[in-house]
Design a protein that fits this description.
The protein is of the alpha/beta class. Helices cover about 50% and strands about 15% of the residues. The chain contains 13 helices and eight strands. Strands 1, 2, 3, 4, 5, 6, 7 and 8 form an eight-stranded mixed β-sheet that branches. Helix 1 crosses helix 2, helix 1 crosses helix 12 and helix 2 crosses helix 6. The two termini are about 35 Å apart. The mean pLDDT is about 95.
């Protein structure tokens, strides 16, 4: 028997390698069919690689291109000045707490905008996308439904690009950090990172796919173990709060709809959903924002292994419940 799911992928820089590990393990389960995938920022990168890989090479094609993307992304950054110091590597947390380059970049981007220090808008990540993905071919796919979220700078609304609208620019818009890169302009509108308004949005999967099961792959911790006290800890927590806010609101709306259905209230437009999630909260709790800029291959591989392990644990506990019931307690997790 086949089980069908949609996948929603959070963004979070290099922490997206965790989701790579999860996707890799899920793709190995032949009886698990992915109908749609929605991603933001690093989640958009993973979603694009997943959809294109499935289109041109099936499950193995998706596994191969995901690894190629993360390996090449790591190689690109290894040629830049933004590297973990020997102390960072010794502690092994993935953080860049002792990297002078990280603190210089942080200070520099507070004083200057990308319109000043990068007027030609050089971004090797776009070159990598265009190297790995034939976007004209991707727009023809019928294997999987792809949705990528960006934030409209002018209107403060989430923009979801569908499969037929996907371009390299659309994916780059979803991952556009405004302090590092110029806003990406598409059809006269300017876009920033989708995480501000939808990280990731769930509604495209509800409105435009048939399956009732949505698996959310989280990256940003919701709960933390202690109150932040240092400047770095405070900034880390603000980042987590801002990039979880839209998801928290959307999950509350889903819970409200489920409650209406339980009470028998339905005008014909509502449907029951089975919500699942894989949440590395414990593992990600102490990594901090700086580690999201760390694409050192050893760190990327560590995140991938965590992702595979968490996916394996989730499958062992919940595979039989797919297409039957929710395995995520929305109230306990998001309310």
């Amino acid at each position: 028997m086949y089980k069908t799911i949609d996948i929603a992928l959070q963004g979070g820089g290099s922490h997206g390698a965790f989701a790579w590990g999860v996707l890799e393990r899920l793709l190995e389960v032949r009886s698990l069919v992915i109908e749609g995938v929605c991603g933001t920022s690093a989640g958009a990168m993973n979603a694009t690689m997943l959809a294109y890989g499935m289109h041109v090479g099936g499950r193995q094609g998706a596994i191969d291109i995901l690894e190629k993307f993360w390996r090449k992304a790591s190689q690109y950054q290894s040629q830049t000045f933004l590297q973990p110091s020997w102390l960072d590597r010794m502690f092994g947390t993935g953080r860049l707490d002792y990297s002078p380059a990280y603190y210089w970049l942080d200070y520099f981007t507070m004083a200057f905008s990308p319109y000043q220090f990068n007027p030609t808008d050089i971004n090797p990540l776009k070159d990598l996308l265009e190297e790995l993905v034939d976007f004209e071919e991707l727009r023809r796919t019928e294997v999987i439904k792809l949705f990528v979220c960006a934030t409209n700078v002018r209107t403060a609304r989430a923009k979801v690009f569908t499969t037929q609208e996907i371009t390299a620019d659309a994916v780059m818009a979803s991952a556009c950090l405004p302090h590092l890169f110029k806003a990406v302009e598409i059809d006269g509108e300017a876009y920033w990172d989708g995480g501000y308004m939808g990280n990731p949005p769930i509604f495209p999967l509800i409105d435009d796919t048939e399956t009732e099961d949505i698996l959310l792959i989280q990256i940003n911790p919701i709960n933390i173990t202690k109150v932040p006290r240092t400047a770095i800890e405070i900034r880390d927590r603000i980042n987590e709060l801002s990039f979880n806010a839209s998801l928290m609101h959307e999950m509350r709306r889903i819970k409200f709809v489920q409650r209406l259905l339980e009470l028998g209230v339905n005008d014909g437009r509502l449907r029951q959903l089975h919500i699942h999630n894989i949440n590395p909260e414990e593992e990600m709790n102490n990594m901090g924002v700086s580690s999201k800029l760390n694409t050192d291959w050893a760190f990327i591989q560590k995140l991938r292994r965590i992702g595979r392990r968490k996916a394996e644990e989730w499958l062992e506990l919940n595979y039989d419940k797919i297409n039957v019931e929710s395995t995520c307690d929305i109230r306990a997790t998001f309310l």
